[in-house]
Amino acid sequence: MKSRCIALDADGVLLDYNQAYALAWQHAFGARPEERDPSAYWAMDRWGVKHLDGEALDRLRAAFDESFWSNLPAVAGALSACQQLDAAGFELVCVSAIHPRFEPARLRNLQQLGFPIARVIATSHGDGARSPKAAALERLMPVAFVDDYLPYLRGLPTHIHAALIHRQKRGSPNTGPELSLAHSHHEDLAAFAAWWLEEGHEQFD
Question: In Å, how far are 11, 61, 150 from 147, measured between CA atoms?
């Protein structure tokens, strides 16, 4: 039987990390930063913030605590997309490059928002020759994997349908010859779900 599992990245696919980043900055320094470029891929480019080091950087990092990872907002349309996939009989698993100690917080965040997701798999992160998510995906063997970060499609088993989300494009890493790693390209998770279900791509081998 074909797998009925679809693996989903969290930040940028299910959850809006860039919006939550501004809240973390406000928590650390007492003032919400001004939005500089809503089309920017990276949170630091989106908000009018400066590069930090030393004590200030430690202060910001401390704001990315369990409470932060428990309370990110959903990406617009992502919840409905997951509900549609769940209703079609797919098991949804979140595969996220997050520290393992925040795995329960990430699952709690998703479930509190109503996502039909019962499992989060935390992986390492990095831009090596092989995706840090590849080993987890080899064990999980989903029929599809959806991510918004092109380097995380490197080295995946070829029978896993790799879907790339092209969100905010200014400064995006989702360019160049490695775009061929993606079997399909979508504006967001809602667009992927509609395409996957309407065109019968769950039959992908």
Answer: 9, 24, 7
